[in-house]
Amino acid sequence: MAISLRLSPDEENLIREYASMMNLTVSELVRSSVLEQIEDKLDLELAEEAYEDYLENSVTYSFDQVKKDLGL
């Protein structure tokens, strides 16, 4: 899929220079940056859900208790 962006000349120069510094094409840089942003957002949402679940059901076990329960 091809995507076009409208960038100011300064933004374009910044992206091109950074891609060059990272030894990437502009396409590779934009692709990896967008995917990383999406993955980070999804990870944050999962972490927030897990934390909310922990707050609602705050049962915790010590390491020693887990070892004992598992017979280790």
General description of the model:
It contains 3 helices and no strands. It has 72 residues and is mostly helical. It has one domain. The chain is elongated and about 60 Å long.
Instruction: Give the amount of beta strand, in percent.
Output: under 5%
Biggest sheet overview: none
Radius of gyration: 22 Å
End-to-end CA span: 52 Å
Please report the number of helical segments.
Answer: 3
What average pLDDT do the residues reach? 96
As for the number of domains, it is 1
Number of strands: 0
What's the assembly state of these chains?
single chain
Instruction: Name the helicity range.
Output: over 70%
Structural class: mainly alpha
- Give, in order, the helices and strands: HHH
Give the low-pLDDT segments. none
Shape: elongated
Break the fold down into its secondary structure elements and pairings:
Elements: H1 9-21, H2 26-56, H3 63-69
